[in-house]
Structure formats: structure tokens, C-alpha cells
Write a structure and sequence with these properties.
By secondary structure, the chain is α/β, with parallel strands linked by helices. The chain folds into 3 domains: about 110 residues, no CATH class; about 60 residues, no CATH class; about 45 residues. Helices cover about 35% and strands about 20% of the residues. The chain contains 6 helices and 10 strands. The strands form 4 sheets. A 3-stranded parallel β-sheet has the order 1-4-10. The protein has a 3-stranded antiparallel β-sheet with strand order 6-5-9, with helices on one face. A two-stranded antiparallel ribbon has the order 2-3. The radius of gyration is 28 Å and the shape is elongated. About 10% of the residues have low confidence. Keywords: Signal.
Length: about 220
């Protein structure tokens, strides 16, 4: 059996502090509730994982990396025009100044493509979703500020310490580009585009036939005269 864990960001952050009873946690040197005490769980000891676990993060709940290849001339002068891969979500420095926030918004935004009815990346920006299959991208929203960005870490840590799971083997994660619509929505948009094109072609053909019939009738009337 496959176990799938999927959550909304706001519901799962600080999961261990909100949902697991106090006696499940080992006390740290400051008395904070942070590490689950495996001995608190009841039942027979588990020799190893019996079911694989796949974590599907919620909206805005996994890391995204960006690379800037170029930026249009309209981009503010203080925004980088070229930059190698870096963590764009969730980057704490994003909110330090108004200028940095403005540049960040321009880089992470999506642009609606009216031809395909889909969302594209901001011009000149590549977005990558790293660590597919691994839990690195969902345990912390920012690997450099772990104390502030903990997400699925406590859950993964409990599975590995208490039940013998191994990261990347028995407990996996499926991060994705949460800025964009799911495949079903894309397929629906594509079908809508096709239907619009078909209706437009049909209307055009109808107008052409009508004009042709009108011209024919006019020519016939002229011939009779």
C-alpha cells in the first residue's frame, strides 16, 4: 500500500506543535517541543517501513530556484539582468527592502499566454523545481534559515528515526511548480482554445459562403436585366 501525505501550507507548518500530544515530544535544553520521542508511541516496535510514503506539498510549499538570462529594457536598473541559479522561494531576503521585493515579484511572476491559454515564466527567467523524489525541498522552505522555515521536517524525521524509513528510498516527495495550473486545467484551457478556433473558422466559412451566394445572386440579377 502507498501512503500519500498532501497538505496546504498553513495547515501543516508547525504540525508537531499543534497536533501531536505533549508527551510525544522529548524536551530540549530549553524545554521546547521540537523532537518527537519515539518511545512515546504505543504498539509493537517496527522492524522497518511497511509502506512507502510520498509527500505532496501544498500550494507555495516547496522550494523553487530561478536563473535570470536577460531582462527587458523596462526592468528597473536596480534589478539583476543576469544571475545564475538561486533560491527564489522561499527567500527571506526578499522582504528586506521594497526594491528587492519589486525585483523578486518581477522574477517569480507568470505571464498569461493568450495563444496557448497557459502561464509562462517572466521574460528572461527560468524556474526549476529541484529535488523531485527527495524530501530536501519540502522539509524546509529555506535551507539556510531552517529555524524559521520548517515544513515537513518533523514528519520526515519521525518516519526515519521511529519507523526506519530512509529519505529518498521509502519516504519521498513530489514537489512541483505551484505557480502554474495543474494538467487538467491546462487541458481544459487547450480544449477551450481549440473550440474557439473551430468556432471562428466556422463563422469565417459561413460569412464567405454568404458573400459568395450574395455575389452569385447579384450576378444572376444583372444577367436577367
Amino acid at each position: 500500500m502507498l501512503i500519500v501525505i498532501c497538505c496546504i501550507l498553513g495547515q501543516i507548518i508547525h504540525y508537531t506543535n499543534a497536533l501531536i500530544p505533549e508527551n510525544y515530544f522529548a524536551k530540549t535544553h530549553r524545554g521546547n517541543r521540537s523532537v518527537i520521542d519515539c518511545s512515546s508511541f504505543t504498539g509493537k516496535p517496527v522492524d522497518g517501513p511497511s509502506n512507502p510514503v510520498i509527500i505532496i506539498p501544498g500550494d507555495a510549499a516547496n522550494q523553487l530556484y530561478a536563473r535570470i538570462n536577460y531582462k527587458p529594457a523596462s526592468t528597473p536598473f536596480y534589478c539583476a539582468k543576469k544571475w545564475d541559479w538561486y533560491l527564489i522561494w522561499a527567500a527571506i531576503e526578499t522582504f528586506t527592502t521594497e526594491a528587492i521585493l519589486e525585483c523578486w515579484i518581477d522574477n517569480i511572476r507568470t505571464v498569461f499566454n493568450q495563444t496557448t491559454n497557459q502561464s509562462d515564466n517572466s521574460p528572461g527567467v527560468d524556474i526549476d523545481v529541484p529535488f523531485f523524489g527527495r524530501t530536501d525541498g519540502v522539509e524546509y522552505m529555506n535551507p539556510y534559515v531552517t529555524w524559521l522555515s520548517k515544513y515537513f521536517h518533523d514528519i520526515v524525521d519521525t518516519f526515519t528515526r521511529c519507523w526506519g524509513y530512509e529519505r529518498g528510498k521509502d519516504i519521498l516527495a513530489a514537489p512541483y511548480d505551484w505557480r502554474k495550473a495543474p494538467p487538467k486545467a491546462k487541458a481544459k484551457a487547450k480544449a477551450k482554445t481549440k473550440a474557439k478556433a473551430k468556432a471562428k473558422a466556422k463563422a469565417k466559412a459561413k460569412a464567405k459562403n454568404k458573400a459568395k451566394a450574395k455575389a452569385k445572386a447579384k450576378a444572376k440579377a444583372k444577367a436577367k436585366a
